[in-house]
Amino acid sequence: MFRVALALVMTGVVAPPALAQDWMPWNQPGYRTPSYSSPSPRFDEDRYGPRPRPQGQELMSGGPRPDVSPASPSRASFESSYAPGTIVIDTGARRLYLVQSSRHALVYPISVGREGFTWTGTERISRVANWPDWHPPAEMRQRQPHLPVKMTGGVYNPLGAKALYLGNTLYRIHGTDDARTIGRATSSGCFRMTNGHVTDLSRRVGVGTTVVVVNRLSARTARVDD
Predict the structure, then answer these.
(1) At 33, is the pLDDT very low, low, confident or very high (cuts 50, 70, 90)?
(2) Where exactly are the structural domains of the chain?
(3) pTM beyond 0.90
């Protein structure tokens, strides 16, 4: 039994929580485990130039870092005892709520972990990074040898314009240029938002903000107003 469990971890079917990261977004053969699939981003190559092609090098550029304007979220009726300023993530509904009061919250659509990579619990934001670098774990690079050891932040980096790191884990709330992934279960445990939404959220929260991740909020707790 132990050998079977070990084999599943080594092949990527089971991933330890501490190793969770998002897959590279390029739609090329061999870049993702065949049993998983997700849309590839529609990069604006006319504006930013051809996206980089990994060759297994140590360092790769993520491309330019344009200014990103914040995108306003919707409002929701949110009756709960969570303190104002708390982030509540409903993985079942694929929504992130920023509590405003005992009756209202701001709500953002998100992408969540695919099957086998979901989790629940409470963390605090430990760091906020602008155009963050990406360091694929060694286990991921072993499965996908073309990945670089490090990719600098930029429009081609899968972490997007902002990353809000959760505690000491490798989980993040982060941006993406590919709006098609929002509302889907496509990540390795991180929570994706559009770059506009994560930019807006990062202006409203900071280091120390409590983040509560639940499977499903009750229908009485949350109701989107607009």
Answers:
(1) very low
(2) 16-30+59-216
(3) no
